[in-house]
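User: Could you check the structure of this?
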Amino acid sequence: MKIKPLADRVVIKLLEAEEKTSGGIFLTASAQEKPQVAEVVAVGPGKVNDDGTRTPVELKVGDKVIAAKYSGTEVKLEGTQYTIISEKDILAVID
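Assistant: Sure, the predicted structure tokens are below.
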């Protein structure tokens, strides 16, 4: 089963949060921040403009991105957690 986003939405999979600080201290699950770095796993066809033309999504599958905190809709599919998010809530692409 696959998720196919509509319009300018993107499906991302959050990457694991750091379990250890730079000083070597291990963090409990409750002390870890919600990760903002994610990988794009699916991209919608783009937004339809008022004149009927389509503006394609600038992201592609495999891009590593930084997403706005607490944005999007979380879904679980076949045991994997995904977030469906609007392209405007993607803040940056990581090279």
